[in-house]
Amino acid sequence: MLLQGFAVLLGFQLLGEILVLVTGILVPGPVLGMAFLLLFLLLRQQVPEPTRQTSEGLLRYLPLLFVPAGVGLINHGLLLKQDFGVIAITLIVSTALTLAVTVLVLQGLKKYLGASNDQ
């Protein structure tokens, strides 16, 4: 049953990779595959049991994927200390830009959805 769930997840990832390869769009294949998986699940209006079990099993171990990033921070602490100012400014500016773009997108969606609901 877990193999069926893996097959579904990897199948959608493969679909995303193939579409990126064929079309050349600048979206990572796994992200595109995940979007197609979401669309598939929304159209189906339920999650198949094998896919649910496999996904829950994978999500249980998700925190382990953060360990290599933490080790990298520790190993490159001197570089981080040397470039702290640049890194801090970059993080602050990128966070502010992300918030601004998010606000603009939400305002645009609110206007668009408000206009479509009035009709």
Automatic annotation (TrEMBL):
Residue ranges of the TM segments: 26-43, 58-78, 84-106
Transmembrane keyword on record: yes
Matching InterPro entries: LrgA/CidA
The name this protein goes by in its record: Holin-like protein
Compartments in which it is found: Cell membrane
Keyword vocabulary terms for this entry: Cell membrane, Membrane, Transmembrane, Transmembrane helix
GO CC, alphabetical: plasma membrane
Entry membrane topology: Multi-pass membrane protein
Pfam annotation, one family: LrgA
